[in-house]
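Case study 2.
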Amino acid sequence: MSLINKMLQDLDARGGQPGSAAVSPEIRPVLAPERSFPWLRVALLGGLAVVLGASGYMAWRIQQTTAVEVPVGPAPVSAPAPAPAPVQAQAVLAEAAPVAPAPAPKPEPVADVPAPEQAEPPPSVKPEARKVEKAVKQEAPAPKRAAAKPEPVKAPLKAATPAKPAVKAAAPAASGRVETTAQRAENAYRRGLASLEDGRVTEAIGHLQNALRAEPRHEAARQTLVSLLIEAKRPEEAMRQLGAALALDPRQPAMAMLLARLQLERGSPGIDTLMRTLPYAAGNGEYHAFLAGALQREQRHREAVEHYTAALRTAPQNGVWWMGLGISLQAEKRNAEAADAYQKAQASGTLSAELQGFVDRKLKQLAR
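Prediction:
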């Protein structure tokens, strides 16, 4: 955008009202020797200012109808825009016009006009005349610059705009929360419990499986899932879950006993499962008694006697275990010890009526 166009736009923004802000800081009064008021020079300058103002106004009107709108960006402007000096000149000449004589028929250049020194110009006109002379000299080459084509200033911004999406995409990554595997497993486990409370068993099983995929050692999720699978009559899946749990950590006697029970129901002895966890079941009477029963079913009575004895050391009043010990002792032809075991089972008072009758028959059999 040319300097004249910039100046005209500033004038249009102020509504054409001249004032102290219209004078550029570069325009300063030039001290000249005292002389009489130059009536002829003022008249010539006034005419020249009128012509320049009219031509500038016409050029602005033409440009307003034909110019292409140029987007304005934040790029710096190389040269400062000068203040509208012709407007100030018009205002000054308007005040001095009533006292100026008619222009001479043959005007001569301003430089050749003699400056008489007979009278001192009025104080109110002298500073304004000097401003007019300075403004005309500085504005004289302005019409030549009016033809300059406006330069676009938004080009640098187009190259910088693609960087904005990258910042927006990076913001969630910087401020987003990363969920750990333990947290993901816990959240899935809680969702499974919520679904189970609402009666959605299939959905609860899915959430619990997700929890175990995130954290296979989540014991609570594993136990709940196995329980739901057993209730849903899906023993094969339950056995796979129990086997995976014992493969990760064999120090889980309860898991081993449950898996062995399911294996016994499916026709497998389950003894291998129990033997792998046996080192971690020391002092667990229930575990030893369960293993003794599994061994007894496989006719491994000698081993069964050992584990029943270990179980009874933890619970001497358990009549069922005394009965089981008597059965294995009788199978090993240790009748006296078997009879003693049956008697202790009968004296425990913990047997059901059916088991009490079974023990009575065994005692009569050994008494013959």
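The chain has 18 helices and no strands.
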